[in-house]
Amino acid sequence: MKIAKIETFFVSRFLVARVTTEDGLQGIGESCYWSYPKAAEATIHGFKDALIGMEANDIEHIWSFLWRYNSAFRGNSIGGAISAIDMALWDIKGKRLQAPVWDLLGGKVRQKIRAIALGVGGNTPAECAEGAKKAIEDGFTALKFTPMPNNWAELTYTKMIGLGVEMVEAVRETVGWDFDIGVEIHRNMQPHEAIAFCEEVAKFRPYFIEDPIVPDSVVAMGDVSSKMKLPLAVGERNMGIWEFREYAQLAKPAFFKPDIAVAGGITGVKKIATIAEANHIKICPHNFQGPIATAACVALGISSPSWDLQESIQEDKPPRRDMTDEIINIENGWYIPSEKPGLGLNFNEKSTAMHPFDPANIPPPISTDGSVGLR
């Protein structure tokens, strides 16, 4: 079961890694360092000389080896590369043992995972309400949205907070009270703004407030968390167990939001989920990438006591739908785990030609004074 080959593929900006063993068994994984996927790809290939010839079964050893490779540098290109390789190795192990990955992780602690709808939003309360209505029609019992218009960086303090509160109110009025609303600030507020906003929207009972400020500092996030009096959700830009340990100690969030395709793969996020369990923190993973990462999340969520919600993006449309031979089934707002070996799906190599590499180009918003729009 020695590793013989490591390949990478781009489907749009989705980076897929494929690991092949000497006996021809293949596993697939996905990286979500989507802003700079070429950097993650280069890191994967930088690992190749060390990985080829290693035992594919020794997943925990390989995870630790890569984390400390070349003097233990840090960064999301490294986290994204390790995540993709790790998923592929778990996929191989499942296929070799003819068992789903969730079975190898200890079996089921739940039969299905509640999905939280993404894609709700808009520039007006009415547009947000319309997206919320569709989430209900699609069978969801929870949604996440950003109550800020596209031109948020140009708004005055009063207008930005007032409009945001109106958007949350419109969504709550649309979905009623037997429905959970996650509010995603998208790192667009300063600490004092986030605290004021949270005080005003508390009456609408949000399930969590995600990334109220930029995750530059765990200490700063902890300070906001101590004052906002609403459940905090953090972690989509973070990697490794140590950063999440600091969040648990200093920010005391209600939810961790690890991205399985950047935070350390199945091995890394299983460790993060254990930290969460020990601190009474729930997992609602960041997951807007492709079906391979979704399959890895579902496999881990089915076997992890601390899992709560699973972010859900439309995977039945291209380019996501073209990436694999099938996708994890979702029924009436619930993910149903695959019973197939490994991650339960196979990479469609033809999708690379169908959807050529599409690099990200998302400059930061600019405020009215010409500065970068981080208020």
Brief descriptors of the model:
alpha/beta, globular, three-stranded antiparallel β-sheet, 2 domains, 14 helices, ten-stranded mixed β-sheet, TIM Barrel, 375 residues, Enolase-like, domain 1, single chain, 13 strands
Report on this model:
The chain is α/β, with parallel strands linked by helices and 375 residues long. It has 2 domains: 3-99, Enolase-like, N-terminal domain (Enolase-like, domain 1); 103-343, Alpha-Beta Barrel (TIM Barrel). 41% of the residues lie in helices and 15% in strands. It contains 14 helices and 13 strands. The protein has helices at 37-51, 59-67, 69-72, 76-97, 101-104, 125-137, 157-175, 191-201, 218-228, 240-251, 265-278, 291-303, 320-323, 351-354; strands at 3-11, 14-21, 26-31, 113-120, 142-145, 180-184, 208-210, 232-234, 255-256, 282-283, 309-312, 330-331, 334-335. The strands form 2 sheets. Strands 4, 5, 6, 7, 8, 9, 10, 11, 12 and 13 form a 10-stranded mixed beta sheet that branches. Strands 1-2-3 form a 3-stranded antiparallel beta sheet. Strand 9 (255-256), helix 11 and strand 10 form a beta-alpha-beta unit. Helix 10 packs parallel to helix 11. The termini are far apart. The mean pLDDT is 96.
Give a short account of the largest sheet. 10 strands, mixed
Total beta-strand segments: 13
Distance between the termini: 53 Å
Which residues form runs of ≥5 with pLDDT under 50?
none
Instruction: Give the integer mean of the pLDDT values.
Output: 96
CATH class division of the largest domain:
Alpha Beta
